[in-house]
Every structure is written in structure tokens, then in C-alpha cells.
Amino acid sequence: MTAARPLLLAVDLDGDGAHPAAWRDAGRPPGAVLGAAALRRAVAAAEAAGFALATFADAPLPPPDAAGRLEAGTRAAFASTITDRIGLAPELHVTTTEPFHLATQLASLDHASKGRAAWVVGAAADAASLATIGAAAPDAAALRREVRDVIDVARALWDSWEDDAVIKESATGRYLDAGRVHHVDFEGASFTVKGPLITPRPPQGQVVVLAAASLDVDDRADVVLVDEPDGGDRAGLTFAEVEVVLAASAAEAADRAARLDEGAPWPRTPGRLRHVGTPAGLAEALRSLAGRVDGVRLHPAVLTADLPALARDVLPALASDGLHRPPAPGGTLRDVLGLPRPASRHTTAT
């Protein structure tokens, strides 16, 4: 990893923005975030700006300070019909989503997007979230096992169909070769899955997996999300998390942040970068991360205000330095991220 390598840029498009009071400053009715038009505009703007990946935050409970949110997988599926370059990554929680359905939903998204699906691993484990499924909060060790087990079974299910399992033999009337579709027979600490998946293998072979460093999933993630770039030796790509409040001057940005915080404070994540200032200042901060991380996931405070500034001022400034390269149409997300397409674990066996 060198400073000359372009940064891979992702943006979170949840609701009206990352700030809890974003809906107060979005310039549209609070319920608009639950319609298709707002999502369509945000996704189109992110793709036109040249972001490699759009993520869609989610949680088992609705946001406390907003009108609510649509389920992340549904938003990503809708976005797949109106985009052709940007990757799409819903946050799906291993603690409240049945593992087989989670893997199926993500494989279906990869087919719908022609290979642009990713998964932000969520692990909500508070009592209120788990009460939605009648479960008790696990201890730290049990939660760690659950996260690892769900990632492992999802990957096993994505491999359960070999790439050439679908044969479509008109002469014999066979659609698939049953010998190339495999039971996974997975047994985790709290669940078992027989398999196989109900959809053919995803176009990418394996959907791209993003997980926070705090989840401690070892080498199971393709992209590790870090709050503080520390130069640690990690498997896969490393993306820094950066929260953003932008304005024409640093004073105006500080005023914006203060007004938003009057509506609802924006909690600080220890170690996470938060830029409250100008687009030029953000571009300089991102330049300083080049060579320390492979990419950055930006969290705009208010989408209607900060996403246009990112598109107009920040990404073009990075592109002029060779630190930003928009994805080309027709490629998979793995192509954009420089990740190889893994072979099925069953290929050599058959």
C-alpha cells in the first residue's frame, strides 16, 4: 500500500444522514426518507460522484430521533435497479436475522446487481434489540462466536452451488447438475444449517464482507472498518470511518454542527475521525490517510447538504491528485476493490 494508490471511497446513505438530527436540517418532510424518491436521489448522486460503494445502515429498532427507516436489504435491492457501477452494501445483523435467509438475501442482491453486492456485518446485542426476537443478550464470548458462525455459514452457503451447477440441458430436461449442489451441514454454537442455498452461486463467487475491527472476525472479512487508522497488520482491505460536516468556512461548519447538536447530540465514537470544516480541509485529511488505509467510508451528517459538497468539491480534488478513480460500468465490486474472485471450495472435489 503506497500513497500513490487511489483511495477506495465508500459513503453511507442511511436516512437523512448520519447525524441523529439530520431530518431537522434535510429540507424535506420527515416522512420523505421512507419513500423511493429520496433514496433514488441519494444513490444516483453517490454513483455520479464516483463512489466505489454505498452502504445502508440499519438496526433492529427504528432510529430514536427520526421518522424511521426502510430495511437495508430492501433499500439495496431497490438501488440495484437504478445503478450500474456503485457497490451496494446493506447492514444485516447476525443477532436478529436467520443465517440462511441472510445468506440468501445477499446472494440475491449480488445477482440483481450483476456482482456489486456487499454486506456490512451488524451485531446489535443490546437487550432492546434482542427483545424483538425474544432472545436474551449474549455475553461477549457468545456474541463473538455468533458473528463468526454466521459469516462462516454464509460463505459456505455461497459455495454450496458450484459455478457450473446450472447446465440447462434441453435434450434431457435437466436444469442443474445435482452433483454440483452441496449440503453445507453447518453446526454452529447456537444454530445448524443443512443447505444448500436456494439460489445459484453469486456472480462474485463470494459477496464482499465488511466488518468493524471491534467485531474481531479474524480473516473472515474482505474489508475491515477501523475507527482509528493504527497501521495494524490485518487481513483484507482496511477502510477508515470518517464523519463529515461541511461548509464554506470552518466557522460555518462549526455553526452547522452546533445547530444539529441542539436537536440531538451526535455521540462520538472513540478514536473515529470527524471532520467539521471545509471540503478542502477534508480533502487534505483524506490525502493524509492515503498509504495508511486502503479506503475510507464517509458518513455525511446531512445527505442533502454534505453529499453534494463531497461530489462537487472533495472527490474531484482527490481525482486531480490521482487519489480517486471512479469505478467503470460493467465490473463487479471485487474488480473495483482489487479482490480476486474466489473459487468454490467444492470445485476441486468434483
TrEMBL record:
PANTHER family: ALKANESULFONATE MONOOXYGENASE-RELATED, C2H2 FINGER DOMAIN TRANSCRIPTION FACTOR (EUROFUNG)-RELATED. This is LLM class flavin-dependent oxidoreductase. Keywords: Flavoprotein, FMN, Monooxygenase, Oxidoreductase. Residues 34-215 form the Luciferase-like domain. Residues 320-350 are annotated as: Disordered. The lineage of its organism: Bacteria, Bacillati, Actinomycetota, Actinomycetes, Streptosporangiales. It comes from Actinomadura parmotrematis.
